[in-house]
């Protein structure tokens, strides 16, 4: 079978549809970039929070260890 040649109008319609599809895709990509940007900001905020919590826990852990040593020394002195 021979290929049917498309008319200029058919080609123009196809190009128009492809252009519309590309515009829609471009819009979706921009929306995704915006969403990713917001997610990155949220992740940075969470990271800052986790870092602050880790510092506090570390400081508290050192305090507990020091108090534990003092308690052990005091108990040994007592007996």
Question: Could you tell me the number of beta strands?
Answer: 0
**Main sheet record:** none
Please give the alpha-carbon distance between the first and last residues.
Answer: 107 Å
Strand content: under 5%
- Which series of helices and strands comes N to C? H
**pLDDT averaged over residues:** 93
Which stretches of 5+ consecutive residues score pLDDT under 50? Answer: none
Helical content class = over 70%
Shape assignment: rod-shaped
Using only C-alpha atoms, the radius of gyration works out to 33 Å
Describe the protein's architecture and organization.
This protein is mainly alpha-helical. The protein has one helix and no strands. The longest helix has 71 residues, at 8-78.
Question: Mind sketching the topology for me?
Answer:
Elements: H1 8-78
Labels describing this entry:
79 residues, rod-shaped, mainly alpha
In short:
The chain is mainly α and 79 residues long. 90% of the residues lie in helices and 0% in strands.
